[in-house]
Amino acid sequence: MKELTQILLLTLREKRDVALAIVFGVLAGFASVALLASSGYLISKAALTGQMTVLIVIGACLKLFGLSSAISRYSERLFSHRATFTMLGNLRVSFFERLAPLAPELYGKYRSGDLLARIIGDVESLQNFLLRVFYPPVVLLMVFSGTILFTLYFSIYTAILLAIGYLLTAVMVPAYFAWRKSRKDWKIRESRGVLSAEAAEFLFGFRDLKIYQQLNGKEQQLVKMVDSYQDEQKNEGKEEVYSQSTNGFLALLVSLAVLAAGAYSTAAGELDGLFLAMLVMVSLGVFENISPMAAFPAHFEESRKAAVRLESIVDETPRIKGEAELPVGPLTISAENLHYIFPGEQRPALEDITVDFPVGSKTAIVGPSGSGKSTLLAVLMDILPAKGGHVLFNGRKSEEFSQESIWQRLNVVLQENHFFYGTIRSNLQLADPQADDKEMNAALEAVELSDFSLQMEVEEKGQNLSGGQRQRLAIARAILKRSPLWMLDEPVSSVDSATGKVIYERLFKNNPDSSFIIVSHDLSGLEGMDQIIVLENGKLIESGSYAELMKRQGYFYGLKEIEQQIMA
Ligand SMILES: Nc1ncnc2c1ncn2[C@@H]1O[C@H](COP(=O)(O)OP(=O)(O)OP(=O)(O)O)[C@@H](O)[C@H]1O
In the UniProt record, does the keyword tRNA-binding occur (predicted)? Predict the structure, then answer.
């Protein structure tokens, strides 16, 4: 039950609505019992005495109970659903608040489809927590207690039978089915996560599967998963039906027993026959309220598992980040003994990196594939948290600053950049919603995309653009951000080298006071950089200006030699 504590606390934030839902649930329960009781009494009274005035009064009571039952049931639904949807809203907000700081590292742990299934499916499963788990037992206990007290006045046997019926249908049967469910451990939610993850991969990898002629195999695998998911759903449905039928059957037995005991008491002269039909109707009426308990085991397990799955994503110790804003004006960045290792990996991706990026400097980070260049950039950007050492902004640790204030000062272009379905204009305005057409066209011109119109449609993920066009559009977007610190991860790797060179020259010329940190595979054109950092296996093995590195005749010089031999 402790897994549900967080959900319970969020639910109880809506105290007023939860209390009103319980009050109206109890009123609706009593009204439906009273409705049936008075109809039972009316039948007996009409048959046995036929007093007109009493019959009129009872008839009026019947109408009143019918009306109040409907109004109370409506109010109960209104308040319980309002509390539920507010709770779901609060849950989503609190979940996302805890999720966001963990986001970059989560991608390595969860497949995107599974993450989506948890964020959407498991959160939605929790809508049943208040509606079907939390308050039905509370309402039921009150309605039964009141009804048992009422029947006690007429017949102790009926009261005892109702108490036994309550224990059986509200406690023992749900507990038995909950036990069965936990024992069988149906993995319906896990199946849903796996199915969603596989379906997402199927969509992402559709083209490659087709090229490698593996589409059919993968499709059959998916169909099997869908079948097994449906089987799990069917099993769960069957259990609910068993639970419902058992409860209904027991309720009927109890009502028959009430009838038998009542008949016996009437024959023995212990009970006025006028009340016999009423007591039987009371029993039928009170057990009408028991139906939600049939679904209790399924919803209890479902809520518990959904809460566990959600909590398992965000239960890591959050990074401690300050709320300070980065100071306005020039920024020096330094890496001090930086260390980073990806979760679950043995080998560090960065080891003991110490380097300064002075204000207005241009730095190139080079090195073989997999040497840690992108990781270094991601740690400098505060996308990945350093596992040792520090990133310093003007000598102050990056932990002191909020991520938002750091990102606000960066112009970032990564290897892969996302474009949203829309137009060139809407994608550019992501960087500056106030940018006018003139500014956006100037940015497009700066990256040699002047043939693009701002109205041009951009498909999902920018798939109607070439790789080089996407990269240039990403640079144009960064230009519009107008921040003083550029962090570029191979921004022109898919652009022809002449155009790439022109774009770099324009960027440097138009932003003379900005700092640039550029990850590059390409060793040509680095002569103009103030500093070149060479990484290998996560370690900084060389740094200096182009001339210094060439003079030193070390690793970088060796790479240049190889490059020249290949070109020759
Ligand atoms: N999400 C991840 N999980 C685990 N290991 C990772 C992850 N991303 C990168 N790595 C590993 O970290 C190391 C450094 O990767 P990184 O992407 O920083 O290299 P890189 O120098 O930028 O490579 P490239 O030039 O090919 O882009 C590599 O060994 C890589 O396998």
Answer: no
